[in-house]
Amino acid sequence: MTIAQKLSFDVQLSDHARTAAEREQVLANPGFGQIFTDHLVSIDYTEGQGWHDARLAPYEPLTLDPATAVFHYAQELFEGLKAYRQTNGSVVTFRPYANAARFNQSAARMAMPELPEETFVESLEQLVQADREWVPTTEGHSLYLRPFMIATQVGLGVNYPSRTYKYMVIASPAASYFTGGVKPVSVWLSTEYTRAAPGGTGFAKCGGNYAAAFVAQRQAVENGCDQVVWLDAAQHAYVEEMGGMNLFFVIGGKLVTPALTGTLLPGITRDSILALADDLGLEAEERLVSVEEWADGCASGEITEVFACGTAAVVTPVGSVKGADRSWTIGDGTPGPVTMRVREELLGIQYGARTDLHGWIHKVL
Ligand SMILES: *Cc1c(COP(=O)(O)O)cnc(C)c1O
């Protein structure tokens, strides 16, 4: 239940923020998700009262009772988006209202409270403003923003969802996913494990989906592959996603992506690429894609490229596929022209080198 109210943020700036020199040292080589900025956002929720105590505060550890619900029943969800420093110096985010809407779809599935979209977007703005110096200036780098929500009620009862929650946002400078050129990944088709089944939580961005996925990702690596590709739970016949990214196929020159059946995570990058296709003069289609079509299409030359997409790595070419009984290469195994064109277009909009025809850019500073 959303309680309509305008929250105002209490702002407490850190008295132990890192020095410019310390920050520059991190920004010279940020990696991904290892080092966090000087501040965080926190908003609490209590059933009957709604959201309260919105604050921007110094980054610090949480102290929680060991019996807190999230530790036991995984009532948790998250989002992921980036702040970019554009070529003209402004700092922007990309489609933050889409993340806000998805956050609330995930919340509804997890029996958690929705957060007003305005509050979600303001929480990002508060953090980016306070930690503006942490938004990298290096080309291709960004400030990764991680909003999340946890169930905070103390007690082991399982008859009712938690009555209290905490929403937070933390931020971490991120290097370009590919250093030294875009490199295709190899993928492992998982038939032993499934990520999501109809009626489950596949469309929700919840940590539990990831907890259940690590064993298959480890199996992919044991099979010499970079990433796991998930197939549908019932038949293991249709392609769903790659790790934490959505997939696109170039079939007969057309962009094809697996349809959102409820078991796939509705990626904002995926949605953006579908919208961009028209600008790029490409046809796009959402439908089921089977493993058989993938293998046969690569053999016949009908499928020329496959790529994965998501906020973290933007667009990643897929070079080869390995399954329990067959393996194949996509095209000649190198990044294809459509993949690179889509990647360039998306990055161009995010960093301001290209015109934002869709109104996706949200200026923060
Ligand atoms: C977050 C996520 C994606 C990509 O979503 P974007 O909004 O494009 O970043 C795809 N699949 C899974 C499983 C995810 O968690």
UniProtKB/TrEMBL annotation:
The modification N6-(pyridoxal phosphate)lysine is found at residue 205. PROSITE patterns: AA_TRANSFER_CLASS_4. CDD domains: BCAT_beta_family. It catalyses: L-valine + 2-oxoglutarate = 3-methyl-2-oxobutanoate + L-glutamate; L-isoleucine + 2-oxoglutarate = (S)-3-methyl-2-oxopentanoate + L-glutamate; L-leucine + 2-oxoglutarate = 4-methyl-2-oxopentanoate + L-glutamate. It comes from Nonomuraea montanisoli. GO terms for molecular function: branched-chain-amino-acid transaminase activity. PANTHER family: BRANCHED-CHAIN-AMINO-ACID AMINOTRANSFERASE (PTHR11825:SF44), SUBGROUP IIII AMINOTRANSFERASE (PTHR11825). Its EC number is 2.6.1.42. The keyword Amino-acid biosynthesis applies. The lineage of its organism: Bacteria, Bacillati, Actinomycetota, Actinomycetes, Streptosporangiales. Its cofactor is pyridoxal 5'-phosphate. Pathway: Amino-acid biosynthesis; L-isoleucine biosynthesis; L-isoleucine from 2-oxobutanoate: step 4/4; Amino-acid biosynthesis; L-valine biosynthesis; L-valine from pyruvate: step 4/4; Amino-acid biosynthesis; L-leucine biosynthesis; L-leucine from 3-methyl-2-oxobutanoate: step 4/4. One of its GO terms (biological process) is L-leucine biosynthetic process. This is Branched-chain-amino-acid aminotransferase. NCBIfam families: ilvE_II, PRK13357.1. Keywords: Amino-acid biosynthesis, Aminotransferase, Branched-chain amino acid biosynthesis, Pyridoxal phosphate, Transferase. Belongs to the class-IV pyridoxal-phosphate-dependent aminotransferase family.
